Amino acid sequence: MPQIFSAYLEAFAECEALRDRVLAVLNRLPEPVQRDFLDDPRFRITLENYVPGEGWSMWMASPGPVGSGSRCVVLRPKLATCSEAFAFYVIAHEFAHAFLRNGGWGDITDIEEAADALAASWGFRRTPYN
To answer: Tens of pLDDT along 67-114?
Structure first.
């Protein structure tokens, strides 16, 4: 595992299959996107820890001035067992939200469409769940 992304993968120690999928997507992102994530201490990736009847918890930076809020990507454990193509798409889509700071991309103002379009530009097209 490349050391450059090791801090992002700590949350997936108990879910090796998902860790490998997250790393595969990180490695395929363009270098400027990787650098944007690596250079921002607010960017992090974590595993959803939902427990039925108890809820879930996560650490997130407090909102601040525009552009200084959290850039936390929360992924569900089921991404370890669904198809690889679907998991890669979802992971890339969530990374696109973080890169765009939940905003638009170019002429695309809808944040979901923007994240889909950016993920597709990285080679991760929307694919059906299976």
So the answer is: 555 688 999 999 999 999 999 999 999 999 999 998 999 999 999 999
Quick one: three-class SS letters along 40-91?
CCCEEEEECCCECCCECCCCCCCCCCCCCCCEEEEECHHHHCCCHHHHHHHH
Q: State the burial class of residue 107 (Cβ atoms within 10 Å of its Cβ: 0-12, 13-18, 19+).
A: exposed
SS3 111: helix
**Residue that has been written with the tokens 């103002």 in this structure:** 109
Whole-model pTM: value is 0.86
Q: Rounded to whole angstroms, how far apart are CA atoms 56 and 73?
A: 15
